[in-house]
Design goal:
162 residues, alpha+beta, 4 strands, globular, binds zinc ion
Amino acid sequence: MLCPCGSQQSFSQCCQVFITQNIPTESPEQLMRSRYSAYATNHAEYIFNTYAGASQKDQSINDIKQWASETKWLKLVIHHASNFHRDLLAGNNAWVEFSAFYLHQSQLCHMRENSRFIVENKQWRYLDGNVTNNTEINKPKRNELCFCGSTQKFKQCCAKHF
Ligand SMILES: [Zn+2]
Ligand SMILES: [Zn+2]
């Protein structure tokens, strides 16, 4: 299966390595992608474990699991990412701005967020994020442009997920 993060690589050669083998991600973008893929494949423990310590107290693995199972993840688009190597970044924030498109209770949704990442114990962690857009969108007709911004027709793009 192709990796949910949209890398065009197979899942086993992309995000699955980080999710199931405890291998640290090299960059905030890699952590962002692997967390998205963990949502898409319902690996709630990985999502919990990659929150920064300060953010974990507001999370529960069961809540993450429930949210992931009610949601069908369609597409991830990365807009910007600071790509520092974790060894070069002591105590600073790194940012990744992304859009995620998903179906929740049959409603198509677009969430755009600027996420903040920090290094803890030499590993990238997700601290928090500013959600700049969270809207319900209409499913396009087959020959219309896809909602995800790819400039392809819907039928050639995200329609395969429906
Ligand atoms: Zn991936
Ligand atoms: Zn699309």
